Amino acid sequence: MDxxxxxxxxxxxxxxLDRPLDPEAVAVLRAEIDACNRESGLHMQLITDEPEAFxxxxxxxxxFRGCRNYLMLVGPKGKDLEAGYxxxxxxxxxxxxxxxxxxxxxxYRKDKAQGxxxxxxxxxxxxxxxYGATNGVPHKGKSITDVSDYREGDPDWYRRGLEAxxxxxxxxxxxxxxxxxxxxxxxLKVAGLGFYTKLDLGIVQYHFELGSGRRIVHS
Length: 219
Ligand SMILES: Cc1cc2nc3c(=O)[nH]c(=O)nc-3n(C[C@H](O)[C@H](O)[C@H](O)COP(=O)(O)O)c2cc1C
Fold this sequence. Notes:
The protein is α+β, with helices and mostly antiparallel strands. The protein has 2 domains: 3-130, NADH Oxidase; 156-212, no CATH class. The protein has helices at residues 3-9, 23-40, 80-96, 156-165, 197-212; strands at residues 45-47, 69-76, 100-104, 121-130, 177-182, 185-190. Strand 5 (177-182) and strand 6 (185-190) form a beta hairpin. The chain starts with a helix and ends in a 7-residue tail after the last helix. Flavin mononucleotide binds at residues 11-12, 14, 63, 102-107, 136, 139, 169-173, 196, 199-200, 203.
């Protein structure tokens, strides 16, 4: 699977099969999480076979059903952008391994969820993980011209980056971001009010970089 296939295959999944994660997939995922933590200074933790955070033993919890695995996204305060960027890197690695996911800021049992926080760290949110009852459906959303200054004739790498960006998950599918390009330099900003917009920005940045092969440098 190439990166675009993985990004196109990823959709939020909230209903999971009663099947433990494959141990080999868990080993690959843990290695990716460790690499992300080393690079970013985050303290992301994979929690497996834990039914409480989503009340997996009950018929459903909100929109969730049967979720027993999740990534607890912990890190130093003020790292929203990194939390989004590296969390999505784990999400897409999971997708590559056939594991479905859903970012979850609100609809989980915060009092029950497991995970450790060191001094000066906080819990950002969790990412539900497992084998989905379905693979989910594509979100309806904005076009590349809605979220950028893209015009016909712009470089191919810019178009590919934007196409990847609009596939990214954002809180309540708000897609409140805007790209602008000046030659080779691309800027990415929050556009409008919303919740978790800075964290969304990190997720979107990861997609753009994967699709375009270029890095975004924040000034
Ligand atoms: C930061 C963030 C927080 C989210 N919080 C929740 C949540 O609390 N509950 C939920 O069911 N979905 C949550 N989502 C999932 C979004 O609703 C979903 O990503 C969006 O509708 C786009 O759909 P897609 O992921 O299928 O592309 C969240 C997504 C993000 C990025």
